Known about the structure:
Blueprint: E1 8-13, H1 15-21, H2 24-39, E2 49-53, E3 58-67, E4 72-81, H3 84-88, E5 93-100, E6 107-112, H4 114-132, E7 139-143, H5 147-160, E8 163-169, H6 173-186, E9 191-196, H7 200-204, E10 209-212, E11 231-234, H8 247-252, E12 253-257, H9 260-266, H10 270-274, E13 285-286, H11 287-291, E14 304-308, H12 313-330, E15 334-339
Parallel strand pairs: 1-6, 7-8, 7-10, 8-9, 10-11, 11-14, 12-13, 12-14
Antiparallel strand pairs: 1-15, 2-3, 3-4, 4-5, 5-6
Helix pairs in contact: 2-4, 2-12, 4-5, 4-12
Nicotinamide-adenine-dinucleotide is lined by residues 80, 82, 85, 92-93, 117, 121, 143-148, 170-172, 175, 213-216, 220, 235-236, 238, 309-311.
Amino acid sequence: MSDQLPPVKTLLLSTTDLRKILDMNDVLTAVENAFRLKGLGRVQMPPKMYLFFDKFNGDIRTMPSYIEDIGVSAVKIVNVHADNPKKYKMRTVMATIVLIDPANGAPISIMDGSLITDIRTGAASGVASKYLARKDSRNLGLIGAGTQSRTQLLAILNTFARLDEVKVYDILPEKSKAFAEEANKAYSKRIKKVIASDDPKDAVQGADIIVTCTPSRKPILKDSWISKGQHINCIGADAPGKQELDPAILKRAKVVIDDWEQASHSGEINVPITKGTFSQKDVYGNIGDIVAGRKPGRISHDEITMFCSTGLAIQDAVTAKLAYDEAKKKGIGHEFEMILPY
Ligand SMILES: NC(=O)c1ccc[n+]([C@@H]2O[C@H](COP(=O)([O-])OP(=O)(O)OC[C@H]3O[C@@H](n4cnc5c(N)ncnc54)[C@H](O)[C@@H]3O)[C@@H](O)[C@H]2O)c1
């Protein structure tokens, strides 16, 4: 019997394969749609599960999801080890995604989830900025000049088409300098100038959009630096105890989250919640509700808006599906028979 049945074909996709396939504009559209479906209650996505490697200042998470409307299911395994670049010359965040055929549970693809994490995390900020930042936003302030910051810049640039000034601050000045040099070269036609700043206050004051993208456990942004009309994407805080903003900022801002279970446990709001200075009633809403049209996003020029991004499994699933479909079309990747016929 087993001889007549086809084997399960699993497509292996490496970072190099994915670089040939994934386009930020496609991912922006896919992530926006994933947020919309979440806002409509049409996704299955339990919160991330964590294992903490305290001895190594790291953790690992599993992130499963299913979206019936799109016919996609995936599980991501992802780590965060902030000392990796210095200690091992390795990325801080690395991931693997298994894409599942919902019809029969077969693992149709195993792919690098690291690049997908970078692109979909950038896309989440792009989508949030579309709904929450001022339409005339032209200046961006970045805190952190690591891996995520690069796709944050690309997604926000693609969302607004052009930027006048980007300022970037990193605790390691050589990283901000390298970032500015690289971005000035890559986007010379779309950004007037990218400046390495040696002071976080200078990087964010006067920016229309701010992105915080560090593994910090102590607030970096001070309340007094934030002015009317600014939008802040908080990316770095994605585990308990992480925090990049003075909690006083949250009191002045319209706070939008990606998912209550995840945000309260590990997002920018997790520390103030633990200390009892912030609660669910202080949250304006979910990005999914705003994208689905159930709640307005920005309603005035002057309001301060904040997006607490913890990263959703559905962002990974829709991006992995894009990659898989495109790889099949173009014949990219390496297909193998991992599971023998029944
Ligand atoms: N929200 C999400 O969906 C999501 C997704 C991926 C990663 N993350 C988080 O984003 C953060 C950054 O990830 P990455 O992959 O870019 O890491 P990375 O190590 O590549 O970059 C982090 C950068 O932050 C800098 N930095 C550290 N402390 C700082 C401080 N106090 N002030 C200024 N700069 C500081 C480091 O020097 C480094 O350049 C991590 O906390 C990670 O867990 C969140």
